[in-house]
Specification:
InterPro entries: GH, Glyco_hydro_13_N, Glyco_hydro_b, Ig-like_fold, Ig_E-set, Pullul_strch, Pullul_strch_C, Pullulanase_N2. This is Pullulanase-type alpha-1,6-glucosidase. With 966 residues, the protein is an alpha+beta fold. It has 23 helices and 43 strands. The strands form eleven sheets. An eight-stranded parallel beta barrel has the order 20-21-24-27-28-29-34-35. It has a seven-stranded mixed β-barrel with strand order 2-3-8-7-4-9-10. Strands 13, 14, 17, 18 and 19 form a five-stranded antiparallel sheet that branches. α10 packs parallel to α11 and α16 packs across α17.
Length: 966
């Protein structure tokens, strides 16, 4: 596996300390809010620094099935504290992140070596706010551990490193902004030669008074010192199994703090050698090692255990695994035996620039597990079944303009049994139960800890395909079949995007599903001020700001692009990465060439969730890869602005009936008191329309238009819950969507929000109109697979662990759309059951083939228009400003209708239940007619649209998006 370093940001020169005469008062310690037994979900709504705008996702915890009710209660309490009301037009100003807040003196804590409040930030510098005024501060180290606190005093043999009070200089404060102003210490020059030895054992920081009395003692966080000492050389290393031209493997692992590392290979133990400059342990083998199982035996001080342990661990750089990730395999991804027929000569569809990408988000198991026409249900190979219903539908989408299939996580997951024989099934006749029954969800929940389903946001090995999707998880078949899947999609006219999750691991510490943290304890995970692992992502956060975690991200992505020919990457919680890390990924991909690597890395697209929350919010520790920060980089971020405006409310509203532009707010009220008075609804709807307009511009910060109050505003001046609605610098910076795997499906959201008696045909029309606001925007757009088929998950708002019953796609309209399959699982939905139960038996909410197939065909017509009309793919903010306008925007704008002029096109989004006439006087006398695709298309209702040239009036039927062309 190569180690591209050209994309790694240059290491800044090591900062110098400014000596200080005494220890200044330091900051208070930050306490973390622990996740409950199952990781809490992350909220939707504003992108204020204090809360993420992402949708909820809760990977199944490795300790077993979550106590769902308890998790839901904690989640609800958290969100009640951090989220403004869905209908609030102006939120309170965002608070400073805790780590940047003013610090106060605090009382010294009792000595506790189980915590790690001292931070060794480079080879010479320690930062520690102990709350004491001490006469002496030292680091103690013991190669084999044994330092303890008993009866308020230290015991155990240890060596000492002397520290002197100092202050952080400007460069150090810039590198560690969350530590600025805290008490700092510099290592006595006489002791600097012992730093490397100290880092390979137990390290403690201690303070005493003039009389020698112990005042404070704590463990020490080491990542900064490890990066300073080893990072520059270590990032150049090739890790994992690397094969010579003659097929001889060398195995290498970075473990700078380990006492010893040995290779356990197929039942025997092989000694490994340590490189003192990089901290990498390596061993060269022979050709007989190929295909053999192996693990590393790492003897290392483990802070969690407070002792030296020997961990037997798989390779973080594994290229193949045995079933259930029990062992790594010595596997060369360049081995011709792992290449399916035609792999080396694979012809891909022409690359689509990110600004023009139309993306289908798809879960591998969902795609085919219920498809009776697939020969490989639930497997990678289902994408090679070219005559299955699922593949035929994807081909239709590809012919209509869909360019990418975005696969939910397909790397090695931590919580799904990979062998079919180990996978549980619900022990009920689910299909025989009533549509509003509680029994389906109870049966599914009981089987969930051992079933075959999970969204997959629980990474175990980042660079090996998940085994449960392979015909045989025990060995390299998963590699071959993943490649066959990519081939199948490419041959269907679609490029492939992988959803990657480098922001957390499924476990940390000494857990048996912790890989990184058992090799270099305390390094790969992001630690809070007390030394505990941050869990703001609702799992154990990683620290891509550290050299070797950042390297792992880059190396892994390059491997997927080069060796699996993946065409794009979607970064989960990308805002938890440094911007520099994501730019390093971009640079490393750009270096891949067809001649050298077999792929054109510059054609690989990147996008991700740029939410800003948690311990790193507001650039507290580094410049984050958030929405605003990524503008202008060519790497897109999901835009929640228009999404929320179209759907209305959020997934954590107490009443799920909060309406939006696409769900009948004001124009088709559902009677919910949560929507406010008639005047409040009208005002909120008009503001939502301004948010949709910003979305249609590509979320451009500088795009100017007249808003519904009559003011001339830029996109950045339109309010989104206290944040700027527009943040993009160019088309392609923001990715539009109305529906994704998180939260209720669009159909289910509309089920809650549209009036209960809304006919199925009208529900289908509102679905297509809502999708149109994303598909017809500038920049890329994403849609959840099946949304065009009115996909339902029976009102489940968080189906990450809800099994096939609630998640499977139904390609045959005769099988329904998934609605009415019982009440959704209690943990995330029980509070909504009073609203859900009467809906699940409502006849108007059960679409037939006419509605399902009609909605899909109408959406495909819109895709054809979007991908064949150049005006929807403008390449600069200036071009958008020149071509795009909203001629009827202002104080007289029609609530529920948006009229958009775009070059020679006029698009009318009529979200109201009535025919609407939009008179654009400036276009009078010009010759417009309904776009030929719609004029000859599948939707008979849109064909009733008309244009009167004399007055410049566009007439559009109810609940319809009509595109006119001059």
């Amino acid at each position: 596996m190569s180690s591209p370093t050209a994309g790694r940001p240059a290491r800044p020169p090591r900062a110098r300390l400014t000596p200080a005469r005494g220890t200044a008062p330091g900051p208070g310690r930050i306490r973390s809010v622990p996740c409950p037994s199952g990781p809490i979900a992350r909220p939707s709504a504003p992108s204020a620094p204090s809360a993420p705008s992402a949708h909820p996702r809760r990977p199944r915890p490795v300790t077993g099935h979550p106590r769902r009710a308890a998790v839901a209660a904690v989640t609800a309490a958290l969100f009640a504290a951090v989220l403004p009301a869905a209908q609030s037009a102006q939120a309170a100003p965002p608070q400073q992140p805790p780590s940047a807040a003013p610090q106060e003196d605090r009382a010294a804590a009792a000595p506790d070596l189980g915590r790690a409040e001292a931070q060794w930030i480079d080879r010479d510098t320690v930062v520690w706010d102990s709350g004491t005024t001490a006469a002496s501060t030292r680091l103690l180290y013991a190669p084999n551990g044994g330092i303890t606190v008993r009866n308020g005093e230290l015991s155990g043999a240890a060596h000492a490193l002397r520290l002197r009070p100092a202050t952080l200089d400007e460069a150090q404060q810039k590198a560690h902004p969350h530590l600025a102003g805290r008490p700092a210490f510099t290592l006595d020059p006489r002791d600097r030669g012992r730093v490397r030895a100290a880092l390979r054992g137990q390290v403690a920081a201690v303070q005493r008074d003039d009389a020698g009395t112990l005042l404070a003692a704590t463990g020490v966080q080491l990542p900064g010192a490890l990066d300073d000492l080893y990072g520059e050389r270590a990032v150049q290393a090739e890790l994992g199994p690397v094969f010579s031209a003659k097929g001889v493997p060398t195995l290498s692992v970075w473990a700078p703090t380990a006492r010893t590392v040995s290779l356990e290979l197929d039942g025997r133990t092989v000694r490994m050698e340590r490189d003192g400059a990089s901290g990498v342990w390596s061993v060269r083998g022979d050709r007989s090692w190929r295909g053999k199982p192996y693990r590393y035996a790492v003897t290392v001080w483990a802070p969690d255990a407070q002792k030296v342990v020997t961990n037997r661990v798989t390779d973080p750089y594994s290229t193949a695994l045995t079933a259930d990730s029990k062992a790594s395999l010595v596997t060369d991804l360049a081995d011709p035996r792992l290449a399916p027929d035609g792999w080396d000569s694979l012809e891909k569809p022409a690359p689509t620039p990110l600004r023009d990408a139309q993306i289908q988000e798809l879960h591998i198991r969902d795609f085919s597990v219920a498809d009776k026409t697939s020969a490989h249900p639930g497997e990678y190979l289902a994408f090679t079944d070219h005559d299955s219903d699922g593949m035929r539908h994807l081909k239709k989408l590809a012919r209509s303009g869909t360019s990418y299939v975005h696969l939910l996580p397909a790397f090695d997951l931590g919580t799904v049994p990979e062998k079919r024989s180990d996978q549980a099934q619900p022990d009920c006749d689910l299909a025989a139960l009533p549509a509003d029954s509680e029994r389906q969800q109870a049966c599914v929940t009981e089987a969930a800890p051992r079933d075959a389903f999970n969204w997959g946001y629980d990474p175990l090995h980042y660079t090996v395909p998940e085994g449960s999707y392979a015909s045989d998880p025990d060995g390299p078949r998963r590699t071959v079949e993943f490649r066959q899947m990519v081939q199948g999609l490419n041959r269907a006219g679609l490029r492939t995007v992988m959803d990657v999750v480098y922001n957390h691991t499924v476990a940390s510490g000494q857990h048996d599903k912790s890989v990184l943290d058992r090799i270099v304890p305390g390094y790969y995970q992001r630690l809070l001020d007390d030394g505990s692992v941050a869990t703001s992502t609702c799992c154990a956060n990683t620290a891509p700001e550290h050299d070797m975690m950042g390297k792992l991200v880059v190396d892994s992505v390059v491997t997927w692009a080069r060796d699996y020919k993946v065409d794009g990457f979607r970064f989960d919680l990308m805002g938890h990465h440094p911007k520099a890390n994501i730019l390093a990924v971009r640079e490393a991909l750009d270096a891949l060439t067809p001649a050298k690597d077999g792929v054109d890395g510059k054609s690989v697209v990147l996008y991700g969730e740029g939410w800003d929350f948690g311990e790193i919010a507001g650039d507290a520790r580094f410049e984050q890869a958030t929405q605003a920060n990524m503008a202008g980089t060519g790497i897109a971020t999901f835009s929640d602005r228009a999404r929320d405006a179209v759907r209305g409310g959020g997934p954590f509203d107490a009443d799920p009936g909060v309406q939006g532009f696409g769900s009948g707010l004001f124009t088709d009220p559902n009677g919910s008191p949560a929507n406010g008075s008639e005047a409040e609804q009208r005002a909120r709807l008009l503001h939502y329309q301004d948010l949709v307009k910003v979305g249609l511009s590509g979320n451009l910060a500088d795009y100017t238009f007249t808003d519904t109050s009559g003011r001339r505003v830029s996109g950045s001046e339109v309010d989104y819950n206290g944040s700027p609605a527009g943040y993009a610098a160019a088309p392609g910076d923001a990715l539009a969507y109305a529906d994704a795997h998180d939260n209720e499906s669009l159909y289910d959201a509309l089920a809650f929000k549209l009036p209960k008696d809304t006919p199925a045909a009208d529900r289908a029309r509102m679905q297509v109109l809502s999708m149109a606001t994303a598909a017809l925007s500038q920049g890329p757009a994403l849609s959840q697979a099946g949304t065009d088929l009115l996909r339902s998950k029976s009102l489940d708002r968080n189906s990450y662990d809800s099994g096939d019953w609630f998640n499977a796609l139904h390609w045959d309209c005769r099988d329904g759309n998934g609605f009415g399959r019982g009440l959704p699982p209690a943990a995330d939905n029980e509070d909504k059951w009073p609203w859900a139960k009467p809906l699940l038996t409502e006849e108007t909410l059960t679409p037939g083939c006419a509605e399902i197939e009609g909605a899909s065909a109408a959406y495909r017509d819109l895709l054809r228009i979007r991908t064949t009309e150049p005006a929807f793919g403008l390449d600069s903010a200036g071009a958008v400003q020149s071509a795009l306008s909203f001629p009827l925007s202002g104080t007289g704008e029609t609530p529920g209708v948006i009229t958009m002029a775009l070059g020679d096109l006029v698009v009318v989004f009529n979200a109201t239940p009535e025919v609407q006439r939009q008179r654009v006087g400036g276009l009078a006398g010009q010759d417009y007619r309904l776009h030929p695709v719609q004029e000859r298309g599948a939707d008979p209702v849109v064909r009733q649209s008309s244009y009167e040239a004399a007055s410049g009036t566009f007439t559009v039927p109810a609940r319809t998006t009509a595109v006119f062309r001059r």
